[in-house]
């Protein structure tokens, strides 16, 4: 008989291991994204817009904003130590960012069930909301921390 694990219990029991695993994202590191907070179903990260992240108009490329939003989404949906992958992401770009802007992305869980979970991500600079994201993840059976019980 397989023992059911409580997601929040797994998060708190393995919080350090989960955070260490999730911040070891080489693409996020390459972009200079710094994970600042991980909670059960939540995450926050920061990144400074650099010259090589600008588009032809001299403002932050949408891909840079999407990257930090996608990163905090991934951290939030994997924060329970259970492997989760993105199914769908919808982003709205609301304002431009400039080189040197420090942006913060925050993901919060809206709803979670056995197989799927929904998240809202807000990306802001020090002046305003610059992007808003709705994201859906698929929750696999496997935990990437601890031993599978049962």
Termini distance? 6 Å
Q: How does CATH name the architecture?
A: Roll
Supply the CATH class: Alpha Beta
The SS-based structural class is: alpha+beta
Task: Give me the CATH fold name.
Answer: Thiol Ester Dehydrase, Chain A
Q: Strand-residue fraction?
A: 35-45%
* Helical stretch tally: 4
Low-confidence stretches: none
Cα Rg: 16 Å
Main sheet makeup: 6 strands, antiparallel
Number of strands: 6
CATH superfamily: Hotdog Thioesterase
Characteristic terms for this protein:
alpha+beta, 40% strand, 150 residues, 25% helix, six-stranded antiparallel β-sheet, elongated, 4 helices, Thiol Ester Dehydrase, Chain A
Short description:
Helix content is 25%, strand content 40%. It is of the alpha+beta class and 150 residues long.
Structure write-up:
- It is a single chain.
- The chain is α+β, with helices and mostly antiparallel strands and 150 residues long.
- The chain has one domain: Hotdog Thioesterase (Thiol Ester Dehydrase, Chain A).
- 25% of the residues lie in helices and 40% in strands.
- It has four helices and six strands, in the order H-H-H-E-E-H-E-E-E-E.
- It has helices spanning 7-13, 15-22, 26-31, 62-77; strands at 34-39, 42-48, 82-93, 102-112, 116-124, 129-143.
- A six-stranded antiparallel beta sheet has the order 1-2-4-5-6-3.
- The longest helix has 16 residues, at 62-77.
- The protein is elongated and about 50 Å long.
- The N and C termini lie close together (6 Å).
- It comes from Fictibacillus halophilus.
- One of its GO terms (molecular function) is hydrolase activity.
- Keywords: Hydrolase.
- Its EC number is 3.1.2.-.
């Amino acid at each position: 008989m397989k023992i059911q694990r409580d997601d929040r219990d797994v998060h708190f029991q393995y919080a350090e291991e989960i955070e260490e695993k999730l911040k070891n994202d080489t693409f996020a590191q390459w972009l200079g994204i710094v994970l600042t907070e991980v909670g059960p179903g939540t995450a926050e990260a920061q990144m400074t817009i650099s010259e090589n992240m600008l588009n032809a108009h001299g403002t932050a490329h949408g891909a840079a904003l999407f990257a930090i939003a996608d990163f905090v989404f991934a951290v939030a949906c994997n924060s329970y130590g259970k492997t989760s992958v993105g199914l769908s992401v919808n982003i709205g770009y609301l304002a431009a960012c400039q080189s040197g802007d420090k942006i913060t992305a925050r993901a919060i869980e809206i709803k979670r069930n056995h197989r799927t979970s929904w998240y809202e991500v807000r990306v802001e600079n020090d002046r305003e909301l610059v992007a808003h994201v709705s994201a859906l993840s698929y929750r696999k059976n496997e935990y990437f921390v601890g031993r599978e019980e049962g």
